[in-house]
Amino acid sequence: MEIELTRAAFGGILAAAERAHPDEACGMLLGHGNRVTETHSARNIHPTPQTHFEIDPQALIDAHRAARQGGPGVLGYYHSHPTGRAEPSATDRALASGDGRVWAIAAGSDVAFWRDDEDGFVALSYSIDDG
Fold it and tell me: 79 lies in which domain range?
């Protein structure tokens, strides 16, 4: 499976990571099918945001509510690793739900995409367009 992103959505992930640094950024990937058309940043409510993330539950509720009302669907989530790599950490692996959603992980200027499968994370390829 390949993820398609608009240039604006890809830039939104990097911008959120830069704004949050040295804390972890987090938010949702929105779109339809395998196409991410926008991102929605959320407040990281984890007590140690420098090394962990937890998306504000109200932001998740609002995004799912908007999707039910005809807006873009919640395809997955993004977060950053301010001092790590763009791959799932041990904490990410331990806390993942295996729900099949897409995770984008930003580290510096690198962003990698993963599917959270029942058996663990699977790396995904991606393409960016001006859409």
Answer: 2-129
